[in-house]
């Protein structure tokens, strides 16, 4: 029984650690390995309460929820309750998926659950320590799945007509804080016919008011009146600024939309799109 308990502890330690890693991977957020390991260790210790009759009450639903809250608090960095509950829900769904998958395999094959757990742990380990994700992503791209999430967008600014290939992304919730106009993130190189070189060939990943003042000083009065400064937040409580230019309108599949701001950004040449917009705007 001692050997089994030790194995059970190690199994839960590895599985909890990989569940935490999977959650971080899905949310694309920073994760300290030491904090993740400490959170997994707490989860593994909690699993051992099952072997102590006097502590079996800790396996009630209420205490399970409490321990999940604690594990999330220990393992992840978060800045507000909204971010915390986003991590919590994702962590919970990953748990349900892996547990459900394990029991489904056991039910259909009759294989011992401990063996199934090893397979799941091994599978997750391979995913995080190989090029599997990269290969899988390339496979999805070869099926043209992502092309269905893209639209051709025509943009008019003064007398200029620009064409963009936009990715539909529900995660883009940027709006002008004053007018509430939605923001479409665009590759600044597509605006080189409109903007001076000082604004086209510059790194937009790090912007501050001093840099923005300098850039705006390079513009004519007419075009500068179109510019907006959009504040935003990213995971880790980092605050940033996006410099935007207001378009006369955008057009998608014959439908015109006014009051759209183009947020200037730098896109990679490898990207199959040069703009990002929330589909609800369309």
Overview of the structural elements:
With 282 residues, this protein is α+β, with helices and mostly antiparallel strands. It has 2 domains: 2-142, no CATH class; 148-281, no CATH class. The chain contains 9 helices and 9 strands. A 9-stranded mixed sheet has the order 4-5-8-3-9-2-1-6-7, with helices on one face. The termini are far apart. It is found in: Cell membrane.
Please count the helical segments: 9
Number of domains: 2
Beta-strand percentage range = 15-25%
Specify the oligomeric state: single chain
Contiguous uncertain segments of 5+ residues: none
Q: How many distinct beta strands? A: 9
**Taking all residues together, what is the mean pLDDT?**
78
How are the strands ordered across the major sheet? 4-5-8-3-9-2-1-6-7
Order of helices and strands: HHHHHHEEEHHHEEEEEE
Shape: elongated
Subcellular location: Cell membrane
Protein name: Sporulation sigma-E factor-processing peptidase
EC number: 3.4.23.-
Family: Belongs to the peptidase U4 family.
Q: Short description, anyone?
A:
By secondary structure, the chain is an alpha+beta fold. It contains nine helices and nine strands.
């Amino acid at each position: 029984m001692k050997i089994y308990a030790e194995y059970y502890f190690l199994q839960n330690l590895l599985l909890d650690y990989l569940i935490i890693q999977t959650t971080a991977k899905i949310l694309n957020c920073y994760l300290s390995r030491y904090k993740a390991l400490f959170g997994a260790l707490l989860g593994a210790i909690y699993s051992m309460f099952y072997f102590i009759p006097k502590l079996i009450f800790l396996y009630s639903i209420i205490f399970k929820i409490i321990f999940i809250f604690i594990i999330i608090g220990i393992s992840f960095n978060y800045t507000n309750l909204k971010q915390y509950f986003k991590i919590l829900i994702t962590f919970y769904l990953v748990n349900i998926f892996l547990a459900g998958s394990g029991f489904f395999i056991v039910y259909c094959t009759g294989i011992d659950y401990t063996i199934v757990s090893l397979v799941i742990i091994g599978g997750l380990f391979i995913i995080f320590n190989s090029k599997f994700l990269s290969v899988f992503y390339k496979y999805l791209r070869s099926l043209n799945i992502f092309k269905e999430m893209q639209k051709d967008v025509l943009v008019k600014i003064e007398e200029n007509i620009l064409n963009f290939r936009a990715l539909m992304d529900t995660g883009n919730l940027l709006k002008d804080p004053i007018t509430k106009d939605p923001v479409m993130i665009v590759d600044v190189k597509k605006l080189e016919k409109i903007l001076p070189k000082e604004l086209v060939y510059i790194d937009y990943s790090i912007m501050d008011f001093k840099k923005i003042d300098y850039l705006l000083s390079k513009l004519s009065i007419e075009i500068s009146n179109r510019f907006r400064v959009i504040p935003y937040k990213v995971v880790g409580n980092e605050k940033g600024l996006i410099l935007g230019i207001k378009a006369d309108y955008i057009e998608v599949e014959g439908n015109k939309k006014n009051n759209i701001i183009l947020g200037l950004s730098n896109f990679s040449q490898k990207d199959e799109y040069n703009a990002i917009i929330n589909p609800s705007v369309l």
